[in-house]
Design brief:
The chain is α+β, with helices and mostly antiparallel strands. It contains 3 helices and 8 strands. Helix content is 35%, strand content 28%.
């Protein structure tokens, strides 16, 4: 445990991150326990937890995984509810965003099906209703966006009559309006409804 604390402190010093802002403010402390499946843990690697707070990169903590050690807990401080990202060094999703606030104790499971180098909104999360809300928002966002793009792409076909093109454009406009309304509603309420 002392080694982990020492390595974390050395990492903070090495990149010039100022973690002192929230030291001594225990109500802003949070914990994230990560469980990973065997394929992702097949080779030793580190996971980093970081965020961008007030235009500064904040490295909160890091842990190491291997085929034997597939569960670990990281800790950090945030001034208020905030997005934090998990980044695996070698194998797994490129970036896993979660939403944390002071006092949270979150558990997230990253499965072998989540392996791949892209952003993943993982819904296997306990202890963070805000993260689950963000996941629901993102899934609905993706669905609405795809519906709009499908209609838009249909309207680009060459062999359509003017009436068919107008009909498809009307549907595409309706899909786009619903998509934009959804984005605005989430921005105003924070609810994925």
């Amino acid at each position: 445990m002392k080694k982990i604390a020492l390595v974390s402190l050395m990492a903070f010093e090495a990149i010039g991150v100022s973690a002192q802002k929230w030291v001594g403010v225990p109500e802003n402390r949070f914990a994230v326990t990560v469980k990973i499946d065997s394929a992702i843990a097949s080779e030793p690697q580190k996971m980093y937890m970081y965020s961008m707070i007030e235009r500064e990169m904040q490295l909160h903590d890091s842990i190491s995984f291997d085929s034997i050690h597939r569960v670990g807990t990281m800790h950090g401080y945030v001034p208020y509810e905030y997005n934090v990202n998990l980044l695996l060094q070698r194998r797994g999703p490129q970036c896993v965003p979660i939403v944390v606030k002071g006092g949270d104790s979150i558990t997230i499971h990253i499965g072998d099906e989540d392996d791949g180098f892209r952003l993943r909104y993982i819904d296997k999360v306990e202890g963070s209703s805000s993260t689950l809300e963000m996941v629901r928002y993102q899934h609905r966002y993706d669905s609405l966006r795809q519906a709009y793009l499908n209609q838009h792409n249909l309207s680009q076909l060459y062999n359509l009559s003017d009436a068919q093109r107008d009909s498809i454009n009307a549907i595409a406009k309706k899909e786009k309006d619903e998509f934009e309304r959804y984005i605005l509603e989430y921005a105003c309420t924070g609810k994925s409804v």
